[in-house]
């Protein structure tokens, strides 16, 4: 599957700007990790891009619709990783791709939330600040802190290094992601 085919699938089921941005941020982080680890960057990026593709259109069936679609297209590994991107679903974590997606999904969304409440957005954002916000259960309350912790453990990454890596990846794309510092007009 090409990235364009994946993008077409995503856009056929998702119109929400925040979900589209989340898909893109997870895609970027997954691709960067694949490159760092010598894995298939296209495959990992597509897993990141499509992991929530059916969430808006089929919330009660998520992720079964996108998983079935990917299986029918011969993308079994990506389909399995997407079927496993929430530990409470009870799906096995068989590959590094499976573990990477669980490790990157929630924390990437959380880091974006941290950036959005700062006037300087991603500029100067540090892992220490993100970790502090993780301790504030009222901040981005929908982010499952257990998923963040379990994902990093499964993927075998140090949380501080993981967060720093994600911030660095997102900073490279901050204009596209509309996470540039707010400019005050005086």
From TrEMBL:
This is HD domain-containing protein. Residues 20-102 form the HD domain. PANTHER family: METAL DEPENDENT PHOSPHOHYDROLASE, METAL-DEPENDENT PHOSPHOHYDROLASE. It comes from Pontibacter aydingkolensis.
């Amino acid at each position: 599957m090409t990235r364009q085919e994946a993008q077409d699938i995503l856009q056929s089921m998702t119109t929400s700007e925040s979900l589209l941005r989340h898909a893109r941020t997870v895609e970027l982080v997954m691709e960067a990790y694949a490159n760092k680890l010598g894995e298939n960057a296209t495959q990992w990026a597509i897993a990141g891009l499509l992991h929530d593709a059916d969430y808006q259109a089929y919330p009660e069936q998520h992720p079964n619709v996108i998983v079935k679609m990917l299986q029918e297209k011969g993308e079994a590994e990506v389909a399995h990783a997407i079927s496993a991107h929430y530990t409470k679903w009870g799906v096995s974590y068989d590959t590094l791709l499976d573990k990477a997606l669980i490790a990157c999904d929630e924390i990437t969304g959380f880091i974006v939330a941290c950036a959005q409440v700062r006037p300087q957005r991603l500029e100067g954002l540090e892992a220490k600040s993100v970790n502090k916000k993780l301790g504030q259960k009222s901040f981005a309350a929908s982010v499952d802190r257990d998923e963040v912790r379990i994902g990093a453990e499964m993927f075998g990454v140090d949380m501080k290094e993981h967060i720093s890596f994600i911030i660095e990846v997102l900073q490279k794309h901050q204009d596209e992601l509309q996470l540039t510092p707010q400019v005050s007009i005086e």
